[in-house]
Specification:
The protein is α/β, with parallel strands linked by helices. About 45% of the residues lie in helices and about 10% in strands. The protein is built from 22 helices and 11 strands. Strands 4, 5, 6, 7, 8, 9, 10 and 11 form an 8-stranded mixed β-sheet that branches. It has a 3-stranded antiparallel β-sheet with strand order 1-3-2. The chain binds S-adenosylmethionine (SAM). GO terms for molecular function: O-methyltransferase activity.
Length: about 500
């Protein structure tokens, strides 16, 4: 195929996906005379604010199954077209991290919806910083702030309404925590409590960019060329260049032998630890949806009183969703002590009654150690073990230990529910997310990039990985489990894998 033919095929693909999307919105319009429009990029939709029933319907349809497929095709085709016609640019991570930490989205939401002048934004940013560590105004100038915001407006993450006047748009509003400026000033550490976790996720991912030194980690000569001569190197830890060798990029970046979670437990990382817990809630909006777990497993078929154990469940984002919809299921969330100590207090009103009644509870367990019955009087094996975003954190040998502990505790009826992306190759293979004759990559290319970037982040942070279907199959089999079903989220690499004891 010539390049122009490929570009034309991609153009057709965008056109037909757009027609599908437009048809869906037209068909679901409350009145044929005023067809429902797709939400505008220029209009922020804050998670906690009231909107008209029509706008609410338009928002809801974005997650409709057929809309998700059409959106995936549009993103994949546009990404592929851009890659063909233009060399890549830089990345936005530093600017994204700054606007999240500086509460810019909340400041713009609180200000004039038509936009705020950069001088006013600057004043508000400075006023929200603690007086004990006020910014140096010769460093944080309105001019520099304006340049940062313009990068984001250029990348459609904000709007520059008129020169130096900025407003939120649909994208930036996604990371609005709904907190007032007074709340942020009084309790900045509570910024993520009772939110959808997307601001926490952005803050975590943009900061935890340890994988940026992946090249130094993999190529010791580049590390040797760039390392400061003062880099301490305890004897016995030298790599081939005489510099210290690390098992992760994270270790190299922070000069530590601790793993990511051990580091998170350090007293100075309290804020990061709590933000990470909320970031996991946010991840359920970017990796499939939180509701996918409800379709992933036949929860209705479990007998009343069945027990779901959420292994490494954090604040319990996924299992609380199950408990909420299935009042006969009991949930026990297991995690490390610093997480368990804080978890119940991180939930607001919606789930209070389930937590207060004791139907959802937390207990401390290191998942590398044998699983212990829930009480002396109840030695029964749990009905379901949930491992959501756990196996992708660990290399195969550690995963095998985690899985063996659960296999030893399981009865023949126990099921394992694993929530992790299952990667596909970027070429034709047994499974494809697109039709046979599509010009798109079978893994949906740019629309799936997020899962592949998380894969690299996992390699950098924890020497682990996202797995392919066959890698997952082999791993589970080696620990005594056999896959019985895989439920992929629509148009996505995210999946719930169900396994039974062999
Ligand atoms: C990526 S998070 C996933 C959290 C949760 N499953 C979810 O989907 O929101 C990984 C979790 O594993 C927990 N964890 C790490 N090491 C652990 C260990 N040795 N024992 C128990 N939990 C552990 C972390 O504290 C964290 O909550």
């Amino acid at each position: 195929m010539t390049t122009f033919a490929t570009l034309r095929a991609l153009h057709t693909c965008i056109g037909s996906a757009l027609s599908d999307l437009e048809r869906l919105y037209k068909e679901r319009s409350p009145s044929p005379s005023s067809p429902l429009d797709y939400p505008s990029l220029d209009v922020p939709h804050y998670p906690n604010s009231a909107i008209s029933p029509t706008d609410e319907l338009a928002e809801k349809l974005v997650n409709d199954r057929s809309a998700v497929v059409a959106i995936g095709y549009i993103v994949a085709a546009c990404g592929q077209m851009s890659a063909i016609v233009k060399r890549p640019g830089g990345h936005l991570q530093a600017c994204m991290r700054f606007i999240e930490e500086a509460h810019i989205v909340e400041i713009l939401r609180d200000g004039n919806p038509q936009g705020m002048h950069v001088n006013d934004i600057h004043r508000a940013v400075v006023a929200l910083r603690p007086s004990s560590a006020a910014p140096d105004l010769a460093v944080l100038t309105p001019e520099r702030l304006g340049h940062i915001l313009r990068v984001l407006a250029t990348a459609h993450w904000l709007r520059e309404v008129s020169p130096d006047v900025f407003a939120n748009n649909r994208r930036s509003a996604v990371i609005d925590t709904g907190k007032t400026l007074e709340q942020l000033r009084a309790q900045p550490e509570k910024k993520y409590a009772d939110t959808n976790g997307l601001a926490a996720l952005l803050g975590h991912v943009c900061e935890a960019s340890f994988f940026l030194e992946m090249t130094e980690w993999l190529l010791p000569d580049v590390h040797a060329r760039n390392a400061s001569p003062a880099t301490p190197c305890p004897s016995g830890t030298e790599g081939p260049t005489g510099l210290r060798s690390y098992s992760t990029v994270f270790g190299l970046d922070l000069n530590t032998d601790l793993n990511f979670f051990e580091w998170l437990d350090l007293p100075e990382n309290t804020f990061r630890r709590e933000r990470f817990a909320h970031a996991m809630t946010g991840s359920s909006y970017t990796e499939g949806t939180l509701q996918d777990i409800l379709q992933a497993f036949p929860w209705d078929n479990l007998p009343a009183g069945s027990v779901l154990v959420d292994v490494g469940g954090g604040i319990g984002t996924a299992s609380l969703t199950v408990a909420h919809m299935h009042p006969d299921i009991r949930v026990v969330v297991e995690d490390r002590a610093p997480v368990v100590d804080k978890a119940p207090a991180e939930w607001g009103g919606e789930y209070a009654h389930i937590i207060d009644s004791g139907r959802v509870s937390w207990r401390v367990r290191d998942f590398l150690t044998p699983w212990k019955p829930l009480s002396e009087s109840n030695e029964q094996a749990p009905d379901v073990f949930l491992l959501r975003m756990i196996l992708h954190d660990w290399p195969d040998d550690v995963c095998r230990t985690i899985l063996h502990q659960l296999r030893n505790a399981a009865s023949s009826e126990t099921r394992l529910v694993i929530g992790d992306a299952l990667l596909l190759p970027a070429c034709k293979d047994k499974e494809s997310l697109v039709p046979e004759d599509s010009p798109l990559l079978p893994n949906l290319g740019m629309a799936s990039l997020q899962s592949y970037l998380i894969d690299i982040m996992m390699m950098g942070n924890l020497a682990s990985k996202e797995r392919t279907v066959s890698e997952m199959e082999v791993l589970l089999y080696s620990a005594g489990w056999k896959i019985s079903n895989i439920k992929r989220s629509t148009g996505s690499l995210w999946a719930y894998t169900i396994a039974a004891p062999i």
